[in-house]
Predict the structure.
Amino acid sequence: MTATIIDGKAVARSLREKIAEEVKTLKQNGIVPGLAVVLVGQDPASHSYVKGKIKACEEVGIHSEVLYLAEETSQAELLQTIEQLNKKTNIHGILVQLPLPPHISEEAVLEVIPAEKDVDGFHPLNVGNLAIGRDTYLPCTPHGIVELIKWTGTDLNGKHVVVVGRSNIVGKPVSLLLLQENATVTMCHSRTRDLPALTRQADILVVAVGKPQLIGKEHVSPGAIVIDVGVNRLESGKLVGDVRFDEVAEVASYITPVPGGVGPMTITMLLANTVKAAKAQAAAASK
Ligand code: NDP
């Protein structure tokens, strides 16, 4: 293997130490950052993600609350719950764990979380602010990806980044963030023709598709940085990314593993957004 592994756990740990310090200072000034997580239904993966978020909050000293709602909860009840959370001054960030049961509109739910408490960065106002380059709550996974690329010491200025996947939660926002870093960004998706010809042009390849082992060494030019966002569980139970790790590691300069790459950064950026929200709301309250 020639590539250096980007150890997302280690990068996340060092960022979390800084966040814990910041929380400590805020507490000395009477501000305790607070996050509320709403979980609807019994999806085991969602329960496990929420558990991870709560544990991470505890580790850095952020106050957290989880509201477990039954699968049959109506959309109106969920919206009411969010409105009640919004009134709580000790809650600075509100997150509704996705996916939601099919009878509830994700769009309606994401819009009712006020933009100033939207620590996931999914509210249309925050998405718009990101698109026009204003300060906002950055969506956590894309923000984490940019931090991992920066960790390699790479200057994004003028680099050609190819992003595979154009979802609202990863592909599109990460492309916007990279554009703001002055990278030249190419976006690919399921209708893209001759994917390998495009991905081989990348100095940095970000893959967020959700198809196990889609990307092989024929997609990667020697020395490229490869960020694998995909999380796929095989029938054997093994977790794999979208990238064939072993063969791509033979040609890439840096590569993220799955698990232990992008995943730990996502929660870390959520903690960072919660602290940012607490500071902003405390400043607004003192005016
Ligand atoms: P979506 O299913 O919303 O989007 C997948 C994207 O991949 C779509 O834009 C789709 O194109 C594109 N695509 C599908 N097939 C191909 C193909 N053969 N070639 C090129 N593009 C293709 O997925 P998400 O963005 O939500 O998630 C992607 C992966 O990242 C998943 O495995 C998910 O679990 C993981 N993930 C990991 C996170 C983490 O913290 N580690 C956080 C979020 C997601 P089209 O638009 O044309 O359909």
Notes: The chain has ten helices and eleven strands. The mean pLDDT is 97.
